[in-house]
Every structure is written in C-alpha cells, then in structure tokens.
Specification:
29 strands; six-stranded antiparallel beta sheet; TIM Barrel; 23% strand; 14 helices; alpha/beta; Immunoglobulin-like; eight-stranded parallel β-barrel
Length: 630
C-alpha cells in the first residue's frame, strides 16, 4: 500500500484535500516491515521523475518514481532515506529537458544559497498553549477585542554582533527577547514577515518557494513552533504574512514545474507579472487551489497561527493589475475582474475562519474593491479585516506637510471616517512606508529635530484614537532615524538618547490606554463608537473627537493640535455636564514635555462650544495631545 490513496487523489482533484501536506512531500513511514521515507510529488505533465538526494549519492537514475493515476502524482518509497537528508526531484519533461526541483510540499529546506529540500518529520510537535487556543475558540469575536500589532522582520529586529554568519537570532532566541519587548510595550499581536521559505533575502519573504516550510534561516520547524508556543503562553497573538498572489521564477521553484505551466496560468498575459518578474497562480485549477488552501491551513492548524495577512490581494483580483493594454486578457464578461481569484477568496476565507473560530484572514488590498470584509453569501470576499491603505496615504501626506499648509489639507485626516463603516479596518504604518527612499517615520516629519518628535507623537495619538485596529512596523516606536534595511538590525542604540526614549514611552502609554479602555476598540466598526466633537477646525489644525464604549462608562475625549502654536485659551465642547479626567498629556516630562502644572480633573460648564451646550477650557500646548476620560 502506498502513501497516497485513490481517495486522496479524488479529494486533491476536487481541490478539497485540506490536509494534503500529510500526503504530498516527504514523510517517514513503513512499507511491509521496512521503514523509510515516502516521496510524493504532483507532476502530471512529466515524462519521468526520479528522487535524488544524499541517501542515494544524488544518483540521477537510482530511484525512479512510479506514476499514480488519475492525477499524475509520482511516488517512491526509499528505505535508505532518513530524517535530515537533502533531496530534490529530477523531472524529465516531454521535450527532453531535465529539471531539478525542490519539493513544493517540503516542511524544511537547505539554508540558502542551497536550494534542496530536507526530510523533516513534523508529525509530533509538542504544544503547551492550550489555554490560549481554548480562549481564542471561546471568544471568536475579534472585532470587540483590542488588536495592536507589532510588525517584525525577524532577521533584522536584532542580530548578534561580530558573528561570521548573518548573526540572526534563532526562533528560540527570538522567543524570549521578542516576547519581553512586545509585552513591555503593550502590543497584543506580532506579525512576522518572511516565515515561509524563500531564496532571496532582498525579497523580504514575499517571493516564496516553500509554502509549507518555515525558513531555515532561523532554525527548524520545531524551533518555529517553539516561538509561536512561547508567544501564545505569554498571551501574544501571532499573524503571518502569506503570499498566494505570485511566486518567483527560480529554477528550483514552482515555475514551469513539470515542464508545463502547472502552478501558473499558461497564457503569459494571465500568468506573469511584468513589473515583478514573477508568475501568477492559476486559481481556476483545483490542485493549485488545494496547494494554496492546504498551505494556509498548514500554518493555522499545524503551527497554531492566529491569522494570515494576505499579501497583494489587489494584484489577484484585477486581471490588468500593473499591466499595459495588450498585456492582459479580459474575463468572459469582458471585465478586468479575476473570477477565479474571487471564488478562491470566498472559499478559503469561509473555510479557514469556519474551521478555526477566532482566526483572522486579513487583506492587504489597496483599491476600493467593494465588500472585501463582507460576507460571501452577500457577494463579499469574507476577509476578517482589510488594511486601510487609504487612511495610511492620507495620514502620511498630511503629516509630511509644513504645519502652515495643514489648514488647507484638513480633510485628509477626516476623510477616512466617511467610509469607516464600509469595511472592518486595520490602520497600518507598515514596512513598505519606511523603505525605498520613502524615509523613516521620524524623517517624514517636517521641521527641526525637536519638531519632528512632537509631530510624530501627535500623529501616533491621532492614529491610536481613530477607529480601526492598529499596526506599527518595528523601529517606528523608537523613532528609527535610518530607513529600514533587511541587512542590519534596528538602531537600538538610539534609546540612549532621551528624545527616542521619550517617544518610546509615549507609544507605550498610548498602547496602555488602548488596551485598558474598551471605548478604544470594542465599537470600531459601529457608528455609535465614534463621534466628532469638531472635525472642521482647519484654521487651527486641531481635531477633537470622542470614543464611546458599550457601557457608556469610561468614554474618551481626544484633542490633537497639529501646529506649533500653543492654545492657552482652548475650549472644547462636550456632551454632558460631567467631570473630565486628564489621562494623557503630551506635555508630561516623561514624554519630553515641559511639564507645566495642570489640573487632573476639569468640570464642564453650561457654555456653548463646538455646537454643544457644555464645554470646558484647557491649556493646549504646541503639538499638544490631551486625552480625557468621562
């Protein structure tokens, strides 16, 4: 009896073999009384396939594989093969070429620049995160929970100095160090870039060759599981970047895998990204959909991941994405929508969130495509969240302006609320905004260095108060001066300087308030959760708004001044005759302010302001932020 059964092949052909990774790839097993390793690879258009590796001295004819019908899966059982051995598939194409391919379903790979797969038995990973997993299942409504994500590129977060290799932290070294930092700052989740195996460091993991393999740069699959387990045990969620949009042309990868366009669309107008030099998956082919769905389930169910951030969704949805006339083909209705990809998203998002309550599917989608987070039954794509790229671009455009010109662009900061309830959003300041000469976050800010820090603080405060879950890329919370590079660690030495420490302390305080008060997150996607006090104070570039909680207790009033002009006579309208307690003052010496004495509590009086019957006066500093609880 082989490893792959007729029933396996039937499900695979239907695109519904959801644990296909247990069958395809390399798996230790028995045949009769012999122990060895099963190798199974899908290569229906190949003429012949051999498995070659350290177990047969890379002898190209020693271990032929047997073809199984009807799918064209090739199988071999190799008694000599053992855990840790390197291997590849040698594929003879119908036109006589010989291709040396890594295993698409391998769970472990040779460290780059090597490109072979490595036999690894991951059937018995030990987990101790049951408390986290049970809680996630019991409280699946993520919309009412806080989510402040720390986006991390593991290879450049911290490094060991003076090591001859890259000095990477291993997954096991990263676990305590990253956990300590994330807990200390108050983030709720980490989002890890570049975990699925990839050949070229400069792609940051967005050109994947191993959809079922944690990258060997930082250790083994078990080591990666240790990292997830460790974060979970310390109540930190884990989100992975996942890239079903395209794959690289590397000779050992998926491109023209069996000599034909197997994983990609055959027509180059559908199957190639001219801008990126990559191949586009054929979402109409069941076995390809199964490969991708199986990969997503693999990370979620095998490695306990809490969410997948799906990269480049727009490039999948639009047939003409990044293409000139003549470089793309319309669908059967003459439109530019990829109907295969739409169906794929509805299937995978419904399946993953349905099988795993509390797990999130997050779309990095940069256009106005409707109902990205809408239910599939109503014609939506059924993602849990969508990155709010529109908010991000408006926010950054505004923050870069000299404060004098901000009054002419006041609506850039209010516009996002006009569409806030059309989707479930995450506000992001991601890695893409601090590379390729776009400047670090602090260096986007106008003015002298002191002004830059004040600008950044008021910007972060506005972001934290605005509806939507939150994401900051590593280094932004310490005001990293240089642009991010994957080739070096963050400039942690900056924390020896007071202004960087003070900004970090300010972000930490924002995150504390964010987690402490449900008004900050529990009604993000509901009209009753947010209310402008004054959205139109363009002349002074001041924004004031209220975040409401479900209970009516501990509502928060935000006042953000985006100019260097102090307002000693500032008066803000409020809904009730109540006491308003100051819980965040950017002028606090902890954050680098001058620390002028201020009352802790303000009583509103019957005095009309901002169209409201009650108000109170507050001394608002230059670039001042004040948050009041009532």
């Amino acid at each position: 009896m082989g490893n792959v059964t007729k029933y396996d092949m039937y499900l695979f052909g239907q695109g519904t073999h959801y644990d296909i990774y247990k069958k395809l790839g390399s798996h230790p097993g028995k045949r009769g009384k012999k122990t060895g390793v099963y190798f199974d690879v899908w290569a229906p258009n190949a003429k012949n396939v051999w498995v070659i590796g350290t177990f047969n001295d890379w002898d190209e004819t020693k271990t032929p594989m047997k073809r199984l019908e009807p799918n064209g899966i090739y199988e071999a059982f190799v008694p000599e093969a053992k855990e840790g051995d390197l291997y590849k598939y040698l594929i003879e194409t119908k036109d006589g070429r010989m291709l040396y391919k890594a295993d698409p379903y391998a769970n472990y790979a040779e460290l780059r620049p090597g490109t072979a797969s490595r036999i690894r038995d991951i059937s018995d990973i030990k987990w101790t995160d049951s408390a986290w997993m049970e809680k996630r299942k019991a409280n699946p409504n993520v919309y009412e929970q806080p989510m402040a994500i720390y986006e991390v590129h593991p290879g450049s977060w911290k490094r060991h100095p003076g090591r001859e290799d890259d000095g990477f932290y291993t997954y096991r070294e990263l676990a305590p160090a990253l956990t300590e930092y994330v807990r200390e700052m108050g983030y709720t989740h980490v989002e890890l870039m570049g975990i699925a195996e990839y050949p070229f460091d400069g792609s940051w993991g967005y050109q994947v060759t191993g959809y079922y393999a944690p990258t060997s740069r930082y250790g083994t699959p078990e080591d990666f599981a240790y990292l997830v387990n460790y974060l979970h045990r310390h109540k930190i969620g884990v989100i992975l970047d996942w890239v079903p949009a395209h794959f690289p042309r590397d000779a050992h990868g998926l491109a023209e895998f069996d000599g034909s366009c197997l994983y990609e669309y055959a027509d180059p107008r559908k199957g190639e990204h001219p801008d990126w030099g990559t191949k586009i998956f054929d979402y109409g082919k069941n076995e390809v959909k199964n490969f991708l769905i199986g990969s997503a389930l693999f990370w979620v169910e095998k490695f306990h991941v809490d969410g997948l951030r799906v990269d480049a969704v727009a490039s999948m949805l639009y047939l003409d994405y990044g293409k000139q006339d003549g470089q793309w083909v319309a669908n059967e209705y003459g439109e530019n929508k990829n109907l295969d990809a739409i169906e794929f998203f509805r299937h995978i998002n419904t399946l993953i969130t349905g099988r795993n309550p509390g797990v999130m599917m997050i779309a990095e989608e940069s256009t106005a495509w409707p109902m990205v987070t809408g239910p599939a039954k109503d014609g939506g794509l059924n993602f849990t969240y969508k990155w709010n790229m529109g908010w991000m671009h408006d926010f950054l455009d505004y923050m870069k302006l000299d404060p004098y010109f901000r009054k002419y662009n006041h609506n850039k900061m209010t516009f996002a609320m006009s569409y806030n309830y059309s989707e479930k959003y995450i506000l992001v300041l991601s890695h893409d905004e601090v590379v390729h000469l776009k400047c670090s976050m602090i260096n986007k800010m106008p003015g002298e260095m002191e002004d830059k820090f004040k600008n950044l603080k008021v910007g972060y405060a506005f972001m934290m108060g605005h509806p939507g879950k939150k994401l900051l890329f590593m280094g932004q919370d310490i005001a990293q001066l240089r642009e991010w590079s994957e080739e070096r660690e963050l400039d942690w030495y900056l924390l020896e300087q007071p202004e960087h420490r003070e900004l970090q302390e300010f972000v930490k305080e924002l995150l504390t308030i964010y987690r402490k008060y449900p008004a900050m997150y529990s009604l993000d996607d509901k009209y009753e959760g947010f209310e402008w006090v004054n959205a139109n104070d363009g002349d002074r570039s001041i924004y004031s708004f209220i975040r409401h909680g479900k209970t009516g207790r501990n509502n928060l009033l935000f006042v953000c001044n985006f100019t260097p002009v102090p307002r000693p006579d500032y008066r803000v309208g409020v809904p009730k005759k109540k006491q308003y307690t100051l819980i965040l003052d950017s002028d606090d010496p902890r954050f680098g302010g001058c620390g002028a004495e201020k009352p802790a509590v303000y009583k509103s009086e019957k005095s009309e302001c901002d169209g409201r019957p009650f108000s109170f006066a507050y001394e608002l500093p230059a670039y001042g932020v004040a948050v009041f609880k009532f």
